[in-house]
Amino acid sequence: MKKTYYCPHCHNILHYREKNVIIASPFVKCPRCKNEVVDTACKEWFSLNIFFKIWGILFMMLKAIMGSMLVAGFIVVAFPSADESVMAIGMFISLIGILAYQIYSLTKAIKKSKERAKSKIYLDKLIKYDFYVPKRIYRKAE
Ligand SMILES: [Zn+2]
After folding, report:
1. How many Å lie between the centroid of ligand 1 and the Cα of residue 106?
2. Whole-model pTM?
3. Over the stretch 92-105, which tens digit does the pLDDT of each residue have?
């Protein structure tokens, strides 16, 4: 599911976002009017509750399984004579590949989120816009 996201200042199309949460800073700059826009689809990792974190990881695994099934489907169509072991190996390799890529991107996003959490000014701004900032994160910031 994708949703069009417009700039509230100039109604320029900012992006088409998926319904699930994106781990990023919610403060983005509109390329047309240069105003700062609060994108509520973007959340900092520390703002998410444990339910969202687990759900996000499960969803990631589900996407990897679906991706590897697509690869298996492709093998069946492209190589009709391939036996089951070829299909199984193809599925396994793509599953590992997709998962590895997803884990890599998630770790990178979490690391960037933790970097931003170090600034008290930034955290104050998040709180001002009603984003949840855990007390332990706020205490550690400078
Ligand atoms: Zn704009």
Report:
1. 28
2. 0.79
3. 999 999 999 999 99
